[in-house]
Amino acid sequence: MISLFFSALIYASLALCVLLSYRVAKVVNLSFGSIFTLGGYLSVFSLFITPIFGAWIGLLLHIGSKRMDTSKATIFSLGIAIAIEEALRILFRVENILLDSRIFYFFGYKLVFEHFLASMISATFLILFLAFELKKPFSRLKLKVIEEDIENAELYGIDAEKARAIVLVISSAFFCIIGGLYLSGRVISPTIGWLYMIFSLFIATIANVFREKAYILILPISFGICWLI
Amino acid sequence: MLEVVEVSKMFGRNVVLKNVTFSLKNGILGIYGANGSGKTTLLKIISGFEKPNCGRVFFNGREITNKAPQEIVKLGVAMAFQIPRVFWNLTVHENVLLAARETDYTAEICKELNLEDVLFKKAKEISQGKVKLLQLAMCFALKPKLALLDEPFASLDAENVEVVLGFLKKRGNEISMIITAHRTKILKTIASQMLEIRGGKIVGSS
Amino acid sequence: MLVNIAIRILVLVLLILPAFLDCYTKLLAASALTLAIFTVSWLYLEKDSGWASLGHSIPFGVSAYLFAINPLLIFFSPLTTFLLFPLSIFGKHTFPFASFVFSVFLWYLAHHIVFEGKGGEEGFRAPSINLDLIYLISVTILVLSCLLIWKISNSYFGLKVKAVRDDEIAAKAIGINPLPFKVLGFAISCSLASIAGILHAAIFGHVSPSVFSPYFSLFPFVAATIGQGKIWSSILGSYTVVFLSWFLSPYVPEFHYAIYAVALILASYTQSYARSGRSV
Question: Cα distance from B44 to chain C (closest Cα, Å)?
């Protein structure tokens, strides 16, 4: 049950990144899977470089897909995903790598320390975002306006491009860190990230049905789906 | 020919049509009213693109209220939309041919509606006015018994308005029509009956 | 004009020449040929029906699996239409990504397909057919596919399919029921993709979960991007991807993915998707 809860936290935060990318940045970011995998490979060297690389890719995605509509931006992100995958194949000639992990006991439950850390970071991320959503009405309104109509938002002085950049950079950095932590103890290959991305996409798609309440309901939905599966 | 019986339509809490009842035996019926009065919704309900919340529509004695639009077309009711719905990546000729199903009749309709000069251009390459004429051509190419024309004169210059008026007057002998417009001036030159619609209700007829 | 003629001549040479060469070249050419049929099937769905699929490995892979499990099951291959068609409910803009996600899901699921103790990650052995015979069959099917698509596209039926592609509401307004034409568009494309999948399995005598991988899902999109959406040049594009991949993979692992990445990124700048009328 404990590990289920921690997994649900992680997937909820990943799904939140997917949802924000779709609603604010207007892109279904298919490169998240590869960024997640990249995090795993980078953790072989150091965990601290993962958010930097993730942020750079987010920035590249933003610059490359600035004036594109959703379809084209998504195709672009898929191209970036495959480019990252191929780069990993070229750099790490060995197909599969086993990542180290540390075990510890949490109230009697055996847990992987890195997974626990990933879930704590996810929880912090979710709490911070919800605090932003609930406490800052004007910022929340700006976000809502950008979600509704990005062109209209710009007409009325909202810096939609800045918001887009922030969302893509932070979500990519986040996916990279979580990948670096959550893939610990597993055998990784360049294509391992697809499944995690699809699962997060699935949760985000269900949450999106609830429109304005999506951000609040994302954790219960994630928990429900993790429990069912 | 057409009977509309106590048709009402709501979008959410917004009442667009309220207990609209009228009939048309033959001829040209002009429906006029301000923006948002429910003219377009009424035509969409008759043509099957919208379903009423209550009420019924009969055409030639058959109820058509819950029929699919393509079935209603086969019964003889054709619609020309206010914002043209055409096949943008097909040529003007192909668009009309799809409706007419014969090449000779296609050529005849296109000639009558001044489309000969753009016949082999794609619909997305021609002007808005010509697209409007194309929409009309497609509607009449179906050889309907009843044509529903939603603001057929909007976006047309004076010359094309005359072309359309001439065309409709000529066809008016064989085909019944319901034509909607904001203003009565043009409608009065062509319609044999008039209905005013305001706030979703019929408030006057002549 | 001259370029078009040159491309057609080159394609004809690539079709005929390998039949007289060594076994390895013939195998390579046969692989490119089946993937060319696959690309043609995708092109029909994208150009005439207006649905750009990024998961076309679904009919391709499922048919290959059916052929490997029991050759008689190939008669059920056209039913793969009903694996891809329901995804059209997401609309033209989301369909490409929904199909891609579904194909990746099938890719993972295929690792768990076990039948009579065989399958799983290793896949199934497929009935192997003489290479010369399969090459001849593949050439015939490619030529017939192109003819079929050309004939359908220029027929009244093809016009209706294009009309439904452009505007379903306008189609209803002139008495066309869009649903049968949408389904038939998918059925034609999926049937051709299924044939390509069966031929692919027959050539290599083996089918594994990799048949659902992004390599096959994205192949026709990439080949069509290289070929600028025209049939002959897309066939040439298929050959280009296969040949480059086979020759350069020993130096750059799975080199085709590098081509894919470039094609996808370039396509996002140049191509349009969800073809349906003009934007208002």
Answer: 11
